[in-house]
Amino acid sequence: MVIPAPRPHWALGVAVGAFVFCVTVATSAKVLRSQDLYLHISTGRWIIANGAVPDRGIFSASMPDAPWVAHEWLAGIVWALVYDNLGWGGIAAMIAIFLAIAVGLLALDTARTLGPAGAVAAAVLGWGLSLNHAVARPHMAALPLLVIWMVAHVRARQRNGTPSLFLPLAMILWANLHGSFMLGLVFTGLFAAEAVFEAETRRQAWTAVRSWALFLGAAVVAAAVTPHGPRGLLFPFELLSMSAATQGIYEWEASSLTNNAPLILWCFLLGFVCLLYGVKLPLTRLAMAMLLLYMAVAHRRHSELLGLAAPILLQHALADNLPAGSAFAARWGPLSRPAVRTTLAAASVAIAGLAAWVFCRDVVRGPDQYTPAAALAAVEARGIRGRVLNAQNFGGYMIFRGYTPFIDGRVDMYGNEFMTRYVALDQLTGLLEQYRIEWTIFEPWNPRSLLMDNLPGWSRVYADDTAIVHLRREASSR
């Protein structure tokens, strides 16, 4: 058993969060490299201008009347306000703040059991699993809520109680920001099952059932407090069932050593510590950790959930099995002195402020695979108009520029049947004729570009390293 650590000071969380913030804003080009970022800003602007949340396929030329659950509507408003007032640098700083808060809270909570060294190790590993998916999208705003939710549940179980009934207020915010709120509800159910499973008497089990059922009911009701009502609760399940719609999207790929090396390192280090010290995990917590691990392996986009939630779930089991002389025993050393903690916190804030000043001023989103700026400039210069068939990766930017694209990143709205036809190469000519397409824009590596080169009645009119534009000859003669 480790020696109980003194109550952790917020300075540790500030220092860890400041480090994460600095590194994140320093890599703002990677953070901003997302096609859906353009869509979120455009959606937020539409909501602000119209005073309503859209429920149909606005912006889409192919499915303008399709039902759309705009589950990230609140994030869209925030994204639009930040961009319109602070530009791309503001977006990068906002994402860095979200990630810094999540990792800082993780460090602060695990420091209670693992001490500063263990907390920093957990934070660094959790942050490492977040890097693959650290882009300017609404899931980043949900990460602090995930940590808060898990911390509240673990602490409730430690005192053999339930989380505060005020916690579902966080669920209201979470459900209006991102679809990952469903994970919070799932883990509430798992913690409820743990409480019943570990009850020593039947009376205690029934008490746990009643108290956790009350909290779970409140959380479910809170999750339904969205513009979509109870329908929003079904959205995460509907999206997971769309295998064809998500096929080929990099973040939905299964994790491997080549595309998600941090996950392999995380698993190796955790396994090494458990084997070295003979750590034995409770059955219920092991099941929760395995669920998170399965999600991270099945889809690389879920790695950050494992990195941020698993240390909170496993910290007590690890602390109870680590010997007092281990590297992660609670040794606060100079950090136990108030003057040192205050100095550390002040220096961390100052460095983070300097990083924001250096890296977030005059940020310009550079050319990337989602931004065919030069190609659209050429389209406008030639006066090309009419219906377009576009690469899905270009949809967000085209909406941002005022175009009505054929398709964009809302795979949930387009659905399996439509996406299956869109990705099938042998359906290209059918789509061109059915939707009376007058020009196309695809990536150079996209096989559709080669097909368009050899398609009768079409001419290549522009090409660069990002996009190739083809024009129907009938349209060019008008």
Q: What is the average per-residue confidence, as pLDDT, rounded to a whole number?
A: 90
- Kindly name the structural category: mainly alpha
Residue share in β-strands: under 5%
Helix content: 55-70%
Number of helices: 20
Spatial order of the strands in the main sheet? 1-2-4-3
Biggest sheet record: 4 strands, mixed
Element order, helices and strands?
HHHHHHHHHHHHHHHEHHHEHEEH
Q: What shape does the CA trace take?
A: globular
Number of strands: 4
Intertermini distance: 82 Å
Q: What is the domain total for the residues?
A: 2
Residue runs with pLDDT of under 50 for 5 or more positions: 1-6
| Radius of gyration, CA atoms, in whole angstroms | 25 Å
Question: Secondary-structure map with pairings?
Answer:
Elements: H1 10-26, H2 28-31, H3 35-50, H4 73-130, H5 139-158, H6 168-177, H7 181-197, H8 202-223, H9 231-240, H10 243-246, H11 261-277, H12 283-298, H13 303-321, H14 338-359, H15 373-381, E1 388-390, H16 395-400, H17 411-423, H18 428-434, E2 439-442, H19 447-453, E3 458-463, E4 468-472, H20 473-476
Parallel strand pairs: 1-2
Antiparallel strand pairs: 2-4, 3-4
